[in-house]
């Protein structure tokens, strides 16, 4: 039976009454009510079309017909508890294994990036028999209690830092302690982790894991300096710990040149544990942890069974395989490389025309523009960034969001079908908005960040 559609006002009123207010909407002052989507486009209840630069979850495009077909076909045949023997889970694991270094060969399927990161933490602590974890400043790894504990982005607003959690400087070569003029920022930032390990040992504690996104997202669309991860892994392993790469935001070809963002750190670098999530199911809840046989063996040897009722179910795995098929068939990695480079080049041209643009950075379809009120001081232009986002939505029907410690970075993580024309439109509109602001002499207070 077809339901009558609520008006936008009715939906908002019911949401305020029924849904927790900490579950915030995009554009909370005037939310967009989305009723359908296709590819890189969203449509509201009036039929107005929005260009989506936000939804990295919908990796191969909203409502891709191949994904819908695979979902319906498997749902019509079987979906059951993953503890029954079935082909899909092993076939999907085999497909994923083909994209990874050979030593990453044991898979655990779960339902969300938070579940994946929580399990990765358990694997690391069980294998090493150590408790302490090193994370990057401003990191976010999920909403479970265990992950809030290792997410400075969250715990600084809540109960604070636990004794077993240690925070290393974010390797940000734009506004970090070692910047673009440093001869070897990768080594310099890695040495801060080594110093942190030494401090931990002086306290009589031991490291279980270094836990980091392969490209820090909440930290501000950060591109890690070369050789950073390999050197950190060397130091962490020497201390008896393991290296966990969080690919929940960045995996499955988003960087274009590689399938996984950790591979940007060089062919010889391989994490001990990798977590993946958001884009895996193109909007369906699907996530995974992959690790080595040794780490998986230690987890098995603890004598406690691990099972996940829905993780790796036949429908989820059918969807996961369909996503891989579309990435290959539509050459979406190549598209990310080509369109991402074009987007970054156009934004770099804007950088030369608008002094409020402090930095343009990114790889593939993972791109950020950092806005500043003063290029020399690199003062975050938080209010300006919010103003640009608002105008893009209201005037151009383009959905963009902000990130970074001061919400001063415009971030682009669109569906991978994002086109050259889409990139050109977005940059044209940003250029117009920034020019308008300069013409009207809009002044923003530095203290407002």
UniProtKB/TrEMBL annotation:
CC per GO annotation: mitochondrion
Chain ranges passing through the membrane: none
MF terms (GO), sorted A to Z: lyase activity; pyridoxal phosphate binding; transaminase activity
Keywords: Lyase, Pyridoxal phosphate
Signal peptide: none
Superkingdom to which the source organism belongs: Eukaryota
Cofactor or coenzyme needed: pyridoxal 5'-phosphate
A Pfam cross-reference name: Aminotran_3
Family of this protein: Belongs to the class-III pyridoxal-phosphate-dependent aminotransferase family.
Protein name per the record: -phosphohydroxy-L-lysine phospho-lyase
Protein species of origin: Xyrichtys novacula (Pearly razorfish)
